[in-house]
Amino acid sequence: MQSIFMKNEIAKANVSWLAVMIMLFGLLLLAGHSNELLKQTVIGPGSSADLGMTADCRADELEEEQLSLEECQLMVSNVRIILSSSPQWYRSYQLTLSSLGVAATLFSLVIAFGLINRQSPALRLAILSTALLLIIDVAGFVAAVNTGPLLRAQYLWSLLLWICIHLCMLVAVIRFGQQGETDS
User: Fold this and answer.
1) 34: which residues sit within 8 A by CB, 6+ positions away?
2) Nearest CA to 170 among 116, 128, 115?
3) Could you state, in order of their start, the residue ranges of all structural domains in the chain?
4) 3-state secondary structure labels for all residues of 156-172
5) Nearest alpha-carbon partner for 116 in 20, 8, 25
6) Residue 48: phi, psi to the nearest 5?
7) Of residues 142, 171, 133, 155, the one with CA closest to residue 25
8) pLDDT tens digits for 52-68?
9) 112: how many CB neighbours lie within 10 A of its CB?
């Protein structure tokens, strides 16, 4: 009897740790998708960098931001890289994908709270939310592969990292679900 009790307590602790990891990575992913959403909203066709304007790097602003003139010019060049490497379809695709990513990440955070509270449907919903995040990562990866080389360099490594993280989480959530079914 004691070993069954200990086994259940260990399983509960494991699920709680998984929920904490989902929350941690969820907050990081939420920040990432939100930043991408903001970037795609701000950097678009018709911006000053797209029009070929030179960097307005005033000395007082450089001093306030503690930047050199060269750093300011490189920031404008980075915007030009994004604009010149992006196919016409990429901006709207990223806006949609980032919006879906924010929604899916918020959903996974809610599910993680359910796992901590040991709500029964939370484990099945965790499988669904993790799989959804993995699909969004793969869709972003496929899109990034079909852009220019400079833009690929900015996106591919982080997308590969998120694919690995979500794949590992999906395996863990499925495994906990299988353990729960065999214990029942």
Assistant:
1) 98, 102
2) 128
3) 2-47+87-183
4) HHHHHHHHHHHHHHHHH
5) 20
6) -60, -35
7) 133
8) 667 677 888 888 888 88
9) 23
